[in-house]
Amino acid sequence: TTGYGQEEKFSGPLKPMTFSIFEGQGTNQIIFQVSLTKEKHTAARNTLDEILTKASSHSSTLPLRHQREGRQRLSGEVAVRGLGRHRRWDPLRGAAQVLVWSGPDPRGPKGNQRDSLRAPGDSSRGISVRGRRGPERGAAGGGAAPGPPPACDHAGSSAFKASPLAVTFKLTGETDDIFQIQPDGLLYHSKALDRETRAVHKLQVSALDAHGNTVEGPVPITIEVKDINDNRPVFLQSKYEGSVRQNSRPGKPFMYVNATDLDDPATPNGQLIYKIIMQLPKVNNVMYFQINNKTGAISLTLAGSQELDPLKNPSYKLVVSVEDMGGQNEHSFSDTTSVDIMVKANIWKAPEPVEIEENSTNPYPIKITQVRWNEPGALYSLVEKEKLSKFPFLIDQEGDIYVTQPLDREEKDAYVFYAVATDEHRKPLAFPLQIQVKVKDINDNPPTCSSTVTVLEVQENEQIGNSIGTLIAHDMDEENTINSVLGYRIVDQTPKVPRDGLFLVQAYSGMFQLALQSLRKRDTPQYNLTVEVSDKDFKTLCFVQINIIDINDQIPIFEKSDYGNLTLPEDTAIGTVILTIQATDADEPHTGSSKILYRITQGDSEGHLEIETDPETNTGYVKVKKSNPIPYCVQLKFDPFLHGCLIYALEHTKNSEGKANFQSLQRVVQATYVIFLQEAQSSLGI
């Protein structure tokens, strides 16, 4: 369709048709009218012009001067539709006048011959002629005859060939006194159309005979009124009021503004775009609010979610505009409204950490804390921070949080999880809140001994007050609380020779001391002590065996004093054993007196090496403790004044792949490793 109807696409009998017309156009616009049923040539149009200029008399025979154009033979009947407004054209009013050609072929050799048309005695074939824009044409006597209704350049046309009995047409349906049809079949509208009043007009056209009887039809004619942008968008309210909680989730709408436009929403004319054109106050030139340009939904920006504070600015004013045409046309209509927003304090806040006493005997579930969303209707749930085999908490739809079973601090001393508030669609309303639960300790664990029997050693010549060793006990209750403080007390000594009370134990550390200097290995080589270890509610007995050993009066001796030079790559792996050393001690074997410990006392200030001792053989293993990027060379020498002292040299070279090259060094760094042998302190502190 065009703006004013179909264009030259209809011919034949009456049939249903649909036309689209823009609203608001001028009156007397032609929608469609009869057109030629044959090809429309210039000759035929000139013939029609000739007829119209001659048709000022009432005679049934009109002279016709044919102009030679085209080659098609013009014969048969010529039907001229009356246009109704030509009041002086009495023969043309009403039904179509049929004139029959009575002369020779007008396009023959005598093309300028004047002949005449006469009213038919009987007709053969009808030729319909398309109406033209209505220029005023001169009538007989020099007067000006009014023309037909003006037609648009895109005026549609339709050719009907009604029954021979039909002489006029009738229009019915939703005409609204706007649509009219003339007897010659010209359909037009006499008033401007308004889509907002009626978007579609359903009409019917019937063909009538001379007696007004329907001989064909009715057929439906549908007029669709096309929209133009002739309505301004209007907000439903001149002022909106709303509120938002601080720290609300950004992008979550808390209010809407709405506008209407009577134009067709399926066209750009009715497509509305919203935008915020002003925010007061605008702190630091930052927008705290945003609007969905299609729905009018107002929400917080990320900055607004983080920075809104009712204590600083409890209210804000927005100026919001709406434009039609999608806001993309300079001829768009617009409207504005104001929005007042109150900022409310946020009550969606994490509660303080909760303490729950372990192994409580109270009935479960027990309420421990609560959370509340800012508005009623939220759905609450809990989410674990770490996956647990059992999650002993729940939340009800009031936001109350419960523990569902007894907790054991020794199994897990703290829990962290999240409380989530969602809407009815399970979409989060804000950020989750972290809930922290600490399990409070009670004294429900007795002290335990680190081993069935603790073995200590003491030399028979040990001085009074010297430390012999320490009894280690444990309490699984919380450290640094009264529940885990342990006390030590000797409750029995076996044998009690030469007397009881030979040993002391520190009350809170468990360290044993020699109380009397009366030890003789040949008389009593071993003592057994029973020690009570207690906290404020529980007591445990631990057992200590004290062995009396010989006096440590022998010096450890290295098997050799010179272990030569060692060369190793700079990228030697940490933990690599680079040297094995051996020393012996003549004191009592397998006692603290003969146990040897090795240590580096000089030449390794940066701690690149370490020595581990085999407790069974007293063999020492020198290992790389950390890498040393600096190459150095040491000279081996033996110091005869240091008993039990070993000196050896260590030289670093390029790495195992041969990539490093230290030839460019201008000097050699000297380093000497001095290893002292020290008799190991026995478990009795010797």
UniProtKB/TrEMBL annotation:
GO terms for molecular function: beta-catenin binding; cadherin binding; calcium ion binding. Residues 167-235, 236-449, 450-558, 560-626 form the Cadherin domain. It is found in: Membrane. The keyword Lyase does not apply. Residues 56-75, 100-157 are annotated as: Disordered. Keywords: Calcium, Membrane, Repeat. It comes from the Eukaryota. InterPro entries: Cadherin, Cadherin-like_dom, Cadherin-like_sf, Cadherin_CS. GO terms for biological process: adherens junction organization; calcium-dependent cell-cell adhesion via plasma membrane cell adhesion molecules; cell migration; cell morphogenesis; cell-cell adhesion mediated by cadherin; cell-cell junction assembly; homophilic cell adhesion via plasma membrane adhesion molecules. The keyword Calcium applies. GO terms for cellular component: adherens junction; catenin complex. This is Cadherin domain-containing protein.
